[in-house]
Design goal:
Blueprint: H1 20-24, E1 37-44, H2 48-59, E2 64-67, E3 83-84, H3 92-125, E4 132-139, H4 148-158, E5 164-166, E6 179-187, H5 190-203, E7 207-209, E8 214-218, E9 221-224, E10 229-237, H6 248-252, E11 253-266, E12 273-277, E13 292-297, E14 302-313, H7 327-338, E15 344-355, E16 361-364, E17 373-377, H8 383-399, H9 416-437, E18 455-460, E19 463-469, E20 475-479, E21 490-492, E22 497-499, E23 506-508, E24 513-515, H10 530-535
Parallel strand pairs: 1-2, 1-10, 2-7, 4-12, 10-17
Antiparallel strand pairs: 3-6, 4-6, 5-6, 8-9, 9-10, 11-14, 11-15, 12-13, 13-14, 16-17, 18-19, 19-20, 21-22, 22-23, 23-24
Helix pairs in contact: 2-5, 2-8, 3-4, 3-8
This protein binds flavin-adenine dinucleotide and FE2/S2 (inorganic) cluster (FES).
Length: 537
């Protein structure tokens, strides 16, 4: 499978693979912060969440500045598959158990409102981003209980979602029995949408600074790694993984890698629809990986079928055919079994933050005593809508307007009695996986065998290092200790990154942060070991 790769140091995207969205519509903005400024609200993160918060605040007369340390969409938004759904990943029957019938209704209503809001913004701002309302089909994974669809139908109806049981699923050449049909879901081209949001924000007087890392978050604003400050009355942390919470949030949510392939289909070969299975219930993790499929326009002759899944906890893919790189083969085999798909032209992976209790954390940052630090994290696989909900909820909180979703998404909530099993199992599995796979004494001599494009952990003078050999044969050394809570990172040979198995922080081979909760780079050591180049013949 020959698909597109891009050097990680370009930071146009958080990994070596380039998604369909970033390849066909990369962000055009490039303006770093070059002086200290003052504004009403500073928003950290140029993904869908940060930009939607910024857009709504601009609309309501609040002066904003967005800072993004890569480029627009270079985080998870550029790596999404952009299904816009009210058929939530975590199933309404589970959400009802945790939040009750009223809570499930509010969750359903907020996601429906998010799709409506996206549609309205697209119309108001004339954003051409291939937005469509289409039907979605949820079918049973062979490992799931037969009554799961009936339970979901009943709970979704109670939550106010339109849904019906159907016998036939259009577009699939392998039918998996009955399915739930969810009408009026949505899809779009995320990078076209984000570029449109940026244009609207700039037109309304908002400021956007790319290649600007928010290094310090202080009481009255932020300071960039270049030493420039943005003073602001309100700070919104929309960094996907939280960078202002060391323990509270990283322990309540779990980072999973998810994989995507996009293959050719003749125009009109598949109906426009979304398809999802109910997840592999034989999987060891408490969070069940599932498949998600849609199509998108490609060229005059072909569309692309975009298929995702084969998730695993970050840094813990496992060996023997289940490593990061092998996940695409499994995904391709599953997709070919169910859909007509030709040559694969894109593949990429990304990171999803699964919360212990099914919904995102959106609101005031826990421990914020100054009433001006807000956050959004925990996308739970529905980050397009959760990010948009943040874009409606956080501006209300900032402006002191009552919002009925506030308690549902409260970041400080801890539903131990309702979802403590997930909390315990995921945290214990992570720790166990970490200790089981943690290299104890990797011999530095193994460096001689390290192939170009690969990385390894080595121990030298009692310290552990991650060493990567680039395509020119040069070695790059980073400290192997994650800057969040000092777990040892693992090499992800697929995206050419150092991934932390504890809470999902990721770093480039030069140590730059790609995903939080870490916010500081790994120490980069190439020059500290000049002799190694001579030794390493
Ligand atoms: C493979 C995959 C498929 C998915 N499919 C779907 C789907 O079909 N539907 C759906 O609803 N959701 C989906 N999701 C989830 C969804 O894409 C994400 O949850 C969403 O894009 C996250 O948006 P965000 O704005 O919160 O984060 P991001 O897009 O990651 O934006 C955060 C930004 O913050 C920046 N940043 C971080 N730290 C700093 C700092 N200190 N200073 C400055 N900038 C900083 C990062 O560079 C990043 O660009 C999918 C996710 C993946 C990975
Ligand atoms: S992400 Fe928490 S220790 Fe690395």
């Amino acid at each position: 499978m020959e698909t597109k790769l891009k050097a990680t140091e370009d930071i146009i995207t958080s990994g070596a693979h380039v998604s369909l969205w970033t390849d066909t519509n990369p962000s055009v903005l490039s303006q770093p912060l070059k002086k200290s400024i003052k504004t009403d609200a500073v928003i950290i993160g140029g993904g869908i969440a940060g930009l939607t918060v910024a857009y709504t605040l601009c609309k309501r007369g609040v002066k904003v500045a967005v800072v993004e340390d890569g480029y627009i969409g270079s985080g998870e938004s550029g790596r999404t598959t952009a299904h816009l759904v009210t058929s939530l990943d975590d199933r309404y029957y589970k959400i009802e158990k945790v939040y009750g019938e009223e809570g499930a209704k509010l969750a359903a209503e907020s996601h429906a409102a998010a799709i409506d809001y996206i549609e309205r913004i697209i119309q108001d701002e004339h954003i051409e981003c291939d937005f469509k309302r289409i039907d979605g089909y949820l079918f049973l994974h062979p490992s799931d209980d037969e009554d799961a669809l009936i339970k979901e139908k009943d709970a979704a109806l109670k939550a106010g979602i339109k849904v019906e049981m159907v016998d036939f699923i259009p577009g699939m050449h392998r039918q998996e029995g009955k399915a739930l049909k969810f009408p009026r879901q949505g899809e779009f081209h995320i990078m076209k949408y984000l570029n449109g949001l940026c244009a609207a924000i700039l037109r309304m007087g908002g400021e956007i600074f790319t290649e600007t890392h928010a290094e310090k978050i202080e009481e009255n604003g932020i300071v960039s790694s270049d030493g420039f400050a943005i003073a602001a009355d309100h700070i919104v942390v929309a960094t996907n993984a939280p960078i202002t919470s060391m323990y509270n949030l990283p322990l309540k949510q779990f980072a999973y890698r998810s994989y995507v392939i996009a293959g050719l289909i003749h125009k009109g070969e598949a109906p426009e629809a979304l398809w999802w299975d109910t997840g592999d219930h034989d999987a060891h993790s408490d969070i069940k990986p599932y498949h998600y499929v849609r199509s998108a326009p490609y060229n005059d002759e072909y569309d692309l079928l975009i298929s995702g899944g084969e998730d695993h906890p970050t840094g813990l893919a496992g060996g023997n055919g289940s490593s990061e790189e092998h996940r695409y083969d499994k995904l391709e085999a599953w997709t070919r079994d169910h859909f007509p798909i030709g040559e694969i032209v894109y593949k990429w992976s990304g990171q999803v933050m699964e919360t212990m209790d099914c919904l995102a954390y959106i609101g005031r940052s826990p421990g914020d005593t100054h009433h001006h630090l807000y956050m959004v994290t925990g996308d739970s696989g529905n980050g397009m809508t959760h990010g948009t909900i943040a874009g409606m909820l956080i501006p209300d909180l900032i402006l002191g307007v009552a919002n009925k979703w506030k308690d549902l998404y409260e970041p400080s909530r801890f539903k131990f009695f309702k979802s403590g099993k997930t909390f315990l199992k995921e945290n214990i599995d992570t720790l166990w996986g970490y200790f089981k796979t943690n290299p104890k004494n990797t011999d530095v001599a193994q460096l001689k065998e390290l192939k170009k494009g690969e990385g390894i952990i080595v121990k030298l003078e009692k310290e552990k290092y991650g060493v990567y050999r680039d395509e020119n044969g040069m070695l790059h050394w980073v400290s192997a200790l994650c800057t969040h809570l000092k777990c040892i990172v693992k090499w992800n040979n697929d995206e050419k990154t150092w991934d932390c198995p504890c809470h999902g922080s990721r770093f480039s081979y030069k140590g730059e942060v790609m995903n939080g909760p870490a916010n500081d780079a790994l120490e980069y050591h190439t020059e500290k070991y000049p002799d190694f180049d001579k030794w390493d013949k």
